[in-house]
Each structure stands twice: as structure tokens, then as C-alpha cells.
């Protein structure tokens, strides 16, 4: 199986400048390639492809030895492939009638990653294995950069990427042939109901808390954003204020990811089969319908609900859960969540009146009373087990 590892880099001041220069030159290469494609098509009706732009790289490097010529040829090819994938996705969306989204030029804040597609070609993981206490990654044009390796790397390192997040630099390893460590069977199954009051409610009645990290940092974020709004555009103080806002958002993102990992580990350790809702989070968090002239109903309430859903991090949690379940040899089943919160887990009666409040469920047919999220989790578990049996019988 494939797995990614993300480690914090500890570059020297000189290496940090070189990393920033490398990222900027790759951004300029990307933007130049976008302009090349646009101009060729608009002026001559010619479609430029990756092979054409990759062949031009050697000329670009020879004309700019102190700029583009400083960096790995393979990493520059990876940047051009990245653009080629963006154009391929654009044409695919046009073909199926979706909103196309033409590839854009990348501003300084929208290009943060450089990739080396093969370990040993312009980069080398663990480049100083004889060092007794530290790990280093060697990057062409930058040198041996120290890595804060907090866990062992398993499998074969395939690609190496460097990413800037605020003032921090990270190295990301994509590894193949990572051995799976299947956990011993427990014989237990569980259904999960995702929520806002509780992040996860299980079919056995357990409520896993929603920490609401964004809400906890809302005061500091509001103050930082107000400070940013008062600064003159293009000034040094504005850049510092923007960095402060970005750092606060990055902290919230790391806290949310940490919660997702800890919650997923606990579930994967205790259950062989995990059934969850197949949520369409992008659809659930759309703005309330309407226009400025004729606004929709309950716009403020919908905005608050959207913020709470995104703060809970359902998408992050489900992604982490899927990866951990695969690694541990657990079975993960996604089911349609329609009417799971309205259906009685005892008699099967379905009606919106069954859910009295956010937390209270009372069946209008049989009188069954339970916590609404626990009732929904039981229905989700039953639907998942039924789907599993149907697949096995087919």
C-alpha cells in the first residue's frame, strides 16, 4: 500500500532563503507555461502540450543559469506536469458540462509546493545516514536540510515534496510498498452518526466530543483580521499581520487533524466493521439560496450551520478514518444517510415528527424514545450490514 509522511524541516537561514527562491522560480515557470499555452492558442490556434514545454526546459535553463538553471530538471518537469493535469481537468469539465475553471496564474500565496518525482534524482532522503542523531534530506541547489523525523519511514520512498505553510517548511514523502499492520479481530461492529453537537455518535451510545477548534480561536482570529484590515496594502506591517492570521488558521487546521487522527485510531482499534454516512459535505455547506435583491430564508442560520459543519472537520475525519482502516485491515462501509435520523430503530416508522428536538427522538408509532443521534447511528449500522450481506450474496 502507499502512504505519505510529513515532517517539519529545520533549514538554516541560508537554506530558508534558497527554499524560498526555489519555490518562486517554480512559480514563475508555472506562470510562464500558462502564458505560453494561452498565447499559442489565442494567436495561432496551436495547442501546446506537456511534451513541447518539457523540451523547451533545456533552453530556458541555458538562458537563465543563475535562475531556472539552479534547480533540479526533474522538479521543473513535475511543475509542468502539474500544469498539464490542471488543463486536462479543465477540458474534462468542459466535456461533461461542468463549470470549467480555466487554469489561472499563481500568485505568491497560491503556489506553495515543489515536487521531486524520484528519490535520487535531484533529491535524496536520509542523505547522511551516518549521522548519529539527525535525519537530512538533500535537495539540488539547496543542500542537506535537517528534518524533524518524529516517526520511522516504512516502505520505499518514491517522491519527495517540499511545502511552505506560513513561515514553516515541511517535507512530504510518498512511499510505496508500505506493509499493512492488520490488527487482531475484535468481532465488534459499529455505526457512526456525524454531528455538530458531538463529532461522532456511535451505535452503542458513545458520544465523541466536537472540540470546535475554530470557535475556540474565533476571538484571536477576529482581532488578528481587524489588525490586518487596518494595515496599508503592500506594507511590511501588512505582511506581518497576514502571517499572523495565517498562523492562527494553520494552528486550527493542525488541531482539527490531530483530533481526527486520535478519534479514528480509537475506532479502528475497537471495531472490525465501521459503517458511516456517505456525506456530500460540499452540498450540505452551500449558501442559502437567493440573491441580494431577493435573499433566501434563514440565511444567517444556514451560514452558522455551515461554519459549524466545516469547523467539525467531517471530511478530514472520514479521510483519516479510511486510511487507518485500510492500514489496520478493518472494513469501512459508507451508506446513504437519507432518513436515518427520522426512522425509528425499533419499528422502522419514518416521519419528520419523530425527531422532537436536536437530541430527542420519540417514535410517533411505537413510542420508542432514544437519543436522536444514537437512533440514527443504529439505523446507519443496520443499513451498512444489510449492504454488506447483499454484496456477499451477489
From TrEMBL:
GO MF annotations in UniProt: endonuclease activity
Pfam entry (one): HTH_OrfB_IS605
Cas12f1-like TNB domain location: 314-380
Superkingdom to which the source organism belongs: Bacteria
Keyword Nucleotide-binding (UniProt): no
InterPro entries: Cas12f1-like_TNB, RNA-guided_DNA_endo/Transpos, Transposase, Transposase_put_HTH
Keywords: DNA recombination, DNA-binding, Endonuclease, Hydrolase, Metal-binding, Nuclease, Transposition, Zinc
Positions of the Probable transposase IS891/IS1136/IS1341 domain: 181-287
Ranges of residues in domain Transposase putative helix-turn-helix: 1-43
Protein family according to the UniProt entry: In the N-terminal section; belongs to the transposase 2 family. In the C-terminal section; belongs to the transposase 35 family.
PANTHER family for the chain: RNA-GUIDED DNA ENDONUCLEASE INSQ-RELATED (PTHR30405:SF25), TRANSPOSASE (PTHR30405)
Protein name, UniProt field: RNA-guided endonuclease InsQ/TnpB family protein
Organism: Microtetraspora fusca
